[in-house]
Design brief:
The protein has helices at residues 29-36, 92-104, 114-121, 127-138, 142-152, 155-176, 190-209, 211-219, 233-241, 284-299, 315-322, 344-352, 368-382, 393-415, 419-437, 443-450; strands at 7-10, 17-25, 37-39, 51-56, 63-72, 83-90, 108-109, 221-227, 259-265, 268-274, 302-308, 329-334, 356-359. The chain is an alpha/beta fold. Bound molecules: guanosine-5'-triphosphate and magnesium ion (MG). Residues 227, 229-235, 248-250, 252-255, 276-277, 334-335, 337-338, 361-363 line the site of guanosine-5'-triphosphate.
């Protein structure tokens, strides 16, 4: 529910720093600002300008900190309400004292995401853009930030708006003809409506097709490192991460659990998963670990198959490669510091089963930079990011539901029997799209989305 009170929170990360910003939003900003901030100069305060002064305790008059204050009157602020920012020294103690004084002066401590929630409720941005704010803040790598930024600029909302307009125009046309539906004449608008709905359908399908690529930009490429035991998978993951995260030993069957770590390669995230060596298991625990490793390969966006170049190619290597899709497979021939036991013919066989083959030495890190470059290249090759993509399951579900309504409407229109029913389906489709962008009357959805946010945003 929208409570038109004044909220306060620290807008910068918790902890010590150069500057911390205490932000207030709501109708009482000017009143609270007048008692909480004592300007150095007595000139009239100008909005959207920084003013030097002191944050003071309104009860005792004690100065709490030397601050810069900025007021942003409604509606031209982030929330669409009056906003006041106090830029304090980055001290958690000072911030706490300033917030406590603001609360004593009548403000309320903000809930997570409440500033952005107010921005949505005041029409400053829609829900897809609000989600983009959270995604931009959480973006682990440049590609995720770029996707969020496009959504925040309204690219996705615009694309969804175009589809909705098309559906609404067909709906208007169908509704205008409801009164004439009893007449025996064939409705000559049927092909045109079908055409319009087919265009809308195509646009929705385009958005749905871009989902997987956008998810990878947002969350990273699930990159599984697999291979026989002892070939150097964990050593290679450590070399790529530049850490000793994975346990390495000369005993085959060392890794049991799948272990995940994120690495940033060229601004894209790769979620590296180290797995157990794949072979005929020697214990129940190993069998479970092998099963898990193969399962991870099945769910991966990319698989790096590690081969021990100092041994002849094993049937288990071939079996693993045969079960994978070549365009998303990279072969790393490891242990290149040791004499190679792989013939030219075997190397050609490997090359035919993978997008690329790289030679590495996980002990020295040789070839790892090349492997990183190859992963980046293969990932870029699989995905061409759409200018305005959907990136959340919520978006996908709403679009799938829209498609169901559209298809039913199309069928009813083709039958020319019951325009009222077609109109209901079209309205359903339009409502699905509207609710995706702005479910303003659905508290439950708003709660789910804004609870993900940090306090102060
Ligand atoms: N000479 C040489 N030895 C390596 C190289 N990479 C790994 N090793 C050694 O190979 C052994 C196995 O390495 P791990 O990284 O544990 O191999 P793994 O594939 O993860 O093994 P499991 O977890 O048992 O499946 C260790 O003794 C490593 O030091 C390499 O490039 N050259
Ligand atoms: Mg291992």
């Amino acid at each position: 529910m929208y409570r038109a009170d004044t909220i306060v929170a620290c807008a910068t990360p918790p902890g010590r720093g150069a500057v911390s910003i205490v932000r207030l939003s709501g109708p009482d900003c000017s009143r609270i600002g007048a008692v909480l901030f004592r300007p150095t100069r007595a000139t009239a305060a100008r909005p959207w300008a920084l003013h030097h002064g002191m944050a003071v305790d309104p009860d005792s008059g004690e100065a709490l900190d030397e601050v810069l204050a900025a007021s942003m009157p409604a509606p031209h602020s982030y929330t669409g309400e009056d906003v006041l920012e106090l830029h304090c020294h980055g001290s958690p103690v000072v911030v706490e004292a300033v917030i406590a004084c603001a609360i004593r002066a009548g403000a309320r401590a903000a809930e997570p995401g409440e500033f952005t929630r107010r921005a949505v409720l005041n029409g400053k941005m829609d829900l897809v853009q609000a989600e983009a704010v959270a995604d931009l803040i959480d973006a682990p790598v440049r590609s995720a930030a770029a996707l969020a930024w496009q959504q925040l600029q309204g690219a996705l909302s615009g694309r969804l708006g175009v589809v909705r307009e098309k559906i609404v125009s067909v709906l208007a046309d169908v509704e205008a003809n409801v009164d004439f539906s009893d007449e025996e004449l064939p409705d000559e608008n049927v092909p045109a409506r079908h055409e319009e709905l087919a265009t809308a359908r195509g646009k929705i399908c385009g958005l749905l097709e871009g989902f997987a690529a956008a998810r990878r930009q947002r969350e990273g490429y699930r990159t599984v490192v697999a291979g026989r035991p002892n070939v150097g998978k964990s050593s290679l993951v450590n070399a790529l991460l530049g850490s000793g995260r994975m346990i390495v030993s000369d005993e085959p069957g060392t890794t049991r659990d799948t272990v995940e770590e994120v690495v940033d390669l060229g601004g894209m995230a790769f979620v590296l998963t180290d797995t157990a060596g794949v072979r005929a298991a020697q214990s129940k625990a190993e069998a479970a670990a092998v099963e898990r490793a193969l399962e991870s390969c099945g769910q991966a966006d990319l698989v790096v198959v590690v081969i021990d170049g100092s041994e002849p190619l094993h049937d288990d290597d071939r079996e693993l490669l045969a079960g994978l899709e070549a365009p998303a497979t990279v072969v790393a021939i490891n242990k290149r510091d040791l004499p190679s036991r792989l013939s030219g013919q075997t190397r050609a066989e490997l090359a035919s089963r993978a997008a690329r083959v790289v030679e590495t030495c996980a002990l020295t890190g040789e070839g790892c930079a090349e492997l990183c470059g190859v992963l980046e290249e293969v990932a870029r090759g699989t995905d061409e990011l759409q200018p305005a993509a959907i990136s959340r399951v919520r978006h996908r579900t709403a679009l799938e539901r829209t498609l169901v309504c559209l298809d039913r409407a199309d069928e009813l229109i083709a039958q020319q029997g019951a325009p009222e029913l077609a109109a209901i389906e079209l309205r359903g489709a339009a409502d699905e799209l509207a609710a995706l962008v702005a479910p303003l009357d659905n508290e439950e959805i708003l709660d789910i989305i804004f609870n993900e946010f940090c306090i102060g945003k």
